[in-house]
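Contributing: when you submit paired examples, paste them exactly as shown. First protein:
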Amino acid sequence: MAADAFQQYLEKTRTLADLSAAVAVLGWDQETYMPDGAAQGRAEQISTLSALVHQMTVERGYGDLIRTLSDSSNGNGLEEWQKASLKESLRDLEMATKLPEEHVRECARATSLAQHSWKQARAEKNYALFADALAHLVELKRNEAGYLGYAENPYDALIDQFEPGMTVAQLTPVFTRLREGTRVLLERIAAAPNKPDDAVLFTDFDKEKQLAYSREMVAKLGFNFGIGRVDLSAHPFCTSFGMTDVRLTTRVFNDDLRSCLFGLIHEAGHGMYEQGVDPAYTRTPLASGTSMGIHESQSLFWENMIARSEPFWQWAFPGLQSTFPGPLGSLDASGFFRAINVVKPSFIRIESDELTYNLHIVIRFEIENALINGQITVADVPELWNSKMREYLGITPADDAEGCLQDVHWSFGGFGYFPSYTLGKLYAAMFYRQMKREIPDLEAQISSGQFANVLAWLREKIHRWGKSKRSATLVMEICNEPLSESAFLEYMTGKVERVYGLG
């Protein structure tokens, strides 16, 4: 009887997964190939499908089935992954039930339109073109926090959607300690007598060659192009229509070698996670990463711990140099390693260095928290953004595109998403430290271009579990300690000392 009931449940989750995949396809097309004039029609299509997903999720019969199976799961012979799937469905059901259908429909419509106005505003460097859409989204997200409920801070309800269980009260001291650790390292860097030069990265690099080299590199790392592809978009992202259809995007600038290469490696980290989930979880609530923080740990692990390491470029630099012999002809692997790890304030978050990156997240975290709590208005954002950039990074954006319009997240309603990036850095550093303990010759393998054991370790420890385990559980099981900033600061101290010749 339980088996039959669970099969009914699976039939429903598969339908929901297929509809959600259809929404994702429309969203991917909107960011890559859709003509600008189709924005209004696409908004309605996405809104309709999103409403259908919500209707099916809160349907009484489906809810009763989930609750019945969940209540009897301890004695009905279900496997652990099946119980975990029910638990995730119950969480989704409870959250969806709290959200009125009209709110879901309006959010889908508003975010689709907002993404279009954001792209226009960013292109014209004019925040005013996006302000009204953003104000509407902030209002919707305040309402959403109220629908979902929270104990202390309405922003907690939004963070919980991306990092279950995380709160402003938990994040604030973590960010404080990271900010202090960053300050100490920046002071050491400022006093370093032998600073590296990264000017070579901003010369002239053929766009087509950059994209081809980057595609080849992520394939060598382990991204499976048999079930994935790469396209261009205004803002790099990874999306999945299922484990056998994972899409990456990147952007290419002829005068910045870093953007395409490291951006694509970053997104491939997300993609390899999606490709590595246990196939048994296909078209169930478990067929994705456990949280955005853990997801970011995978992209940041490959981008920073692997692709910005000295052993990596001992192997990879000859190929890169032969691709771009003009600008890179007089450089060696050590010099390139130092160049790509220069620490200096940057206006653009996704192109900032590992150390100061967290300060970009703190700025967004503080502004989002203030917006959702009504402490500031949308009109205050550009000036507040610029003042925080001056305070934390010592620089002031020249225009809105370089400042508060640089990220796509607000346009798709992703309030609460940004903290996941810093959590990802902390998780990645913890996993890297543990991987080095378990694979003693890890750096030697990397320096010879062998990544199979790296990917296998991540598959076994993290990827295969999908959403069946929470972040805190994974971290404790893998590292035998809870979340901490110590591994990240330890890792960054070692890298800074190597790059800047500090002992």
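Second protein:
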Amino acid sequence: MTMNESEQRVVDGTAWDEFCDRLKEAGQILKSEKAPKDPFSQAEGYRYLSRLLRGGLESFLEHRDPLFPTLRCGAHETIKLGADNPDNRYESASIRPEHDYRISGTRGTVDYLGIGTVINRYSIDGTMRTTGFVDSRDLEIHDDGTFELILSQKKQDGNWLPMNEGTNSVNVRQTFQDRKNEVPAELKIERIGAEEERPQPLSPEALDRGLQGAVTFVGRTAKLFENWSESFLPNLNTLPPADQAYCQLIGGDPNIFYFHSAWALAEDEALVIDAKVIPECQTWNFQLDNWWMESLDYRYHQIHVNKHTAHYNEDGSVRVVISHADPGHKNWIETAGHKEGTMCWRWIGAEDHPGLESRVIKLADFLRE
């Protein structure tokens, strides 16, 4: 029997060997000139690569069939990337523009629900262009909280999400104000017309393609965000507006205005961030990340604050204090054992995007203020 190229690569082990070689090569990103080289940061960096690998294998090997898509959570408590929002639940599915799809389920009570079709090229050039977007305010939802949304290139009556000839993925983003008490949306996706069909068994081509896609995702994603962290250093310990067009290019939510930067604090220092004006908005939040742009462990540490959890000053402003030791401030953000990293502030659903003031102060001086 004559084997095709993928069959030969699988049988003789070339597909696996190349996967392993490229995974080893991806580790060189941790040696980047400006990346921290201390054992703690390097350990987090290697764990970060392992997390990207888990996400890549799930995305490119386990859940890659656009004929039978599944909404999978690609960033969560133990898979983190790109300043993942601790208030969010992220889901995505592979789709193909020549087919029509249906997303259905319950709206829940989560504060914000946005659904977008995209041209996902993260593993190619780090971009993710939006081709259609709706949030729950645009949807017709039944009295019992259920709804259906059709994804297609041709406009549909009722709830419709556009696709174009390049669309290859759909992203669902849920943002909680109070994750403990809000009910998440429970959604599923299906290709219209696939009710009587079944997926094909794994093929050598799918395995070969999946391994290549996963390891490409690891290398290019790690490089993308390490480069981004380095670009923040000129604005260390300040929070200027990010390049909003670039944020959208790599998958940012169209309803969000982003502030990104880097931080570094000595043991006796605190970073004080003042939002003098809080705009009318659906929500806002601030989070602390490590160098690799992973949100810090929000399961066990207070590393973020949002519109619902924040303590407000009498004039409606907000002060956030970042420090290693607890300063006794109600909006204290823990560094969770980190001495440096990145950070992000978001205005979500706001028409105005006021700036932020920041300063580094000795912790002892802050306590005397």
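If you have annotations for the second protein, write them as plain sentences, like these:
DSSP finds six helices and 17 strands in the chain.
The radius of gyration is 22 Å.
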